[in-house]
Amino acid sequence: MAYNQTNNPFTKTSCGRRYGPANGTNNNPTNTPLKCWSGYERVPGTKEFSKGSCKKSSPAKSNEPRKTIGPGKNFNKAKPTGTGADAGGGMTQKGVDSYKAKNPGSKLKTAVTTKPSKLKPGSKDANRRKSFCARSRGWDGERGRAARRRWNC
After folding, report:
1. CA–CA separation, 106 vs 97, rounded Å?
2. Measuring CA to CA, which of 2, 68, 131, 136 is 20 to 30 A from 26?
3. What pLDDT is recorded for position 20?
4. Average pLDDT by stretches of 10, the chain with 153 residues
């Protein structure tokens, strides 16, 4: 059985070959602008068939706001004082659960709010905390500072 290319942007000739740069032709027989593969879009100002002329389409932004108060709360409100779970500045367990329900296979977890002295050195939680603290070192905003306090950084 022959391999069937479903998303190839080049049209077929009557003998089954494809129009395109591979066989020396750069014309488009249907007189329509060349399309990219599904999930990709044309980069304006690039030459047809050139490397980088198609890019991955950006996913649509979520309309869900980050709610810190009221029904449907999915983030903790950032507080200027407090450490650990009292600091706020991160997703609640309810928020993580609703995210996982909408994105199956997600590995999102809540913050490690256990004090560093209570964590076993080298454990998964200790390494997650250490990695987060290193990654978030430059966060200067109110929510970032609250998140770092929550993680005991």
Report:
1. 10
2. 2
3. 65
4. 70 72 51 68 80 79 63 72 70 84 86 90 94 93 86 89
In sequence order, the β-bridge partners of residue 55 are 41
Per domain, the residue ranges of the chain are 1-59, 84-150
The answer to pTM > 0.70 is: no
- The three-state DSSP-derived secondary structure of 81-144 is CCCHHHHCCCECHHHHHHHHHHCCCCCCCCCCCCCHHHCCCCCHHHHHHHHHHHHCCCCCCHHH
8 A C-beta contact, residue 110 and residue 50: no
Report which secondary-structure segment, H or E, holds 148: helix 142-150
Say which amino acid occupies 76: N
Spacing of C-alpha 65 from chain mean position: 16
CA atoms within 13 A on the CB side of 108: 16
